[in-house]
Amino acid sequence: MTARTIWRDSEFIAWDDATVHVLSQSLQRGSLAFDYLSVHATGRGIAVFRLRDHVERLAVTCEIVGLPLDYAVDELVDACAETVRRNPGAKSVKISALIPSIEAELVPQDPRVSVFIAAYDGDRDIIGRNRGRSHRRTELSLKIEREKRNRRDDIIPPHAKVAANYTAAMTAKWRARQEGFDDIVLLDEDGWVTEAPTANLFLVDASGGLATPPANKVLLGITRASIIELASRIGRRCEERDISVDELRRAPEAFLTGTSEGVWPALRIDGEPVGDGNVGSVTARVRETYRAVVRGEEPAFEHWLHYV
C-alpha cells in the first residue's frame, strides 16, 4: 500500500497510527460523525467533488448530535485539500469527528472532539486488504425492506451522518445480501419509500420525469442534490414527493445515487425486473451527465469541483 498519511487535529500521522482506544466514547456509543467525499481526475488536475458542501454537512451533523466541533468549515476544507495532495492516487476522502476519551458514562466527561481526515483508494487500500469477497456492483438488485424502518426524526434525524444511525440498516442489508440482493430500500413508519442505507433513491415515471422522496425523510445527499439540479440540464423535471412501494415497483426505471458510484441503475426490485430489466435511457443519460460533471467537462458546473 502507498504510504498514506492521515490528518489528525492539524497534524499528519501515519495510516497505522490513526487509532483510538477500544473504550473510547465514540466507539462504544456510536457518536462518531462523518462525511464521505469523492476525488476525480479532470483536465485541470485532481478535484474533490463539492468539498465545501460535504464539510458543511459534517458541521450540521455535529450540531444535531451535540458534538462540540472546534474547527471552522474553512479550516476543514483546507485540511481535506491538503490531505488529498499528500496522498497521490486517492479516490475517496473520509472525514470523521469523534470523542476519543475513555468514558464510563453515556454522557462524556471529556467531550473534546478529534477530527481525522483520510484520503485513499478504496479498492487498493481497504477492500483489497480485507478478508472475504468484495460485493461491488454497478447495476443493482434491490429488496424492499419491510421490517427495519427508516430512521425517525424523533430519535436521530436522517439528516445526521452519525455512526449509530446506520446500525439497523446494516443488519437489514446484511440479511438481504445473504438472500441474493445487492441493497435494500427502506420505508418510513407509514410505508412510504425513503432511501437505501447509504444512497438516495430516484425513479423515472411514465412521462420520463424524475421523482425522489422528500427531503424531510432522507439523508440530504450531496449527489442527490446534484441530480435534482442536473435534471433540468437534460430536459427532465424532478419532483420531491411521497412515493409508494407500488409506484416504485411499476416504475419503468429506478436508480440510487451516492458518493462512491454516482448513479447506480436498479435492474430488479423484489426479484422482478424494473422496466425491461435493462438500464433505461433516462438513467443512462443522468449517469453520463453526472460523470461528465465530475470529470470537469461541464463548464456550467465547474464550481462544484475543488481543485487541489
Structure write-up:
- With 308 residues, the protein is α+β, with helices and mostly antiparallel strands.
- It is 26% helix and 28% strand.
- It has eight helices and 16 strands.
- The chain has helices at 25-29, 51-65, 73-85, 122-126, 167-178, 222-231, 245-250, 281-294, and strands at 5-8, 11-14, 33-42, 45-49, 92-98, 114-120, 140-149, 183-187, 195-196, 199-204, 210-212, 238-240, 253-258, 262-269, 272-273, 305-307.
- Strands 7, 8, 9, 10, 11, 12, 13, 14 and 15 form a nine-stranded mixed β-sheet that branches. Strands 2-1-6-5-3-4-16 form a seven-stranded antiparallel β-sheet.
- Helix 2 crosses helix 3.
- The model has no long low-confidence stretch (mean pLDDT 94).
Write the layout of secondary structure elements.
Blueprint: E1 5-8, E2 11-14, H1 25-29, E3 33-42, E4 45-49, H2 51-65, H3 73-85, E5 92-98, E6 114-120, H4 122-126, E7 140-149, H5 167-178, E8 183-187, E9 195-196, E10 199-204, E11 210-212, H6 222-231, E12 238-240, H7 245-250, E13 253-258, E14 262-269, E15 272-273, H8 281-294, E16 305-307
Parallel strand pairs: 7-8, 7-14, 11-12
Antiparallel strand pairs: 1-2, 1-6, 3-4, 3-5, 4-16, 5-6, 9-10, 10-11, 10-13, 13-14, 14-15
Give the overall average pLDDT. Answer: 94
* Distance N to C terminus: 22 Å
The run of helices and strands is EEHEEHHEEHEHEEEEHEHEEEHE
**Class from helix and strand fractions:** alpha+beta
Instruction: Report the C-alpha radius of gyration, rounded.
Output: 20 Å
Q: How many H/I helices?
A: 8
Low-confidence stretches: none
Helix share of residues? 25-40%
Q: How much strand content do the residues show?
A: 25-35%
Number of strands: 16
> In this structure, how is the largest beta sheet organized?
9 strands, mixed
Shape: globular
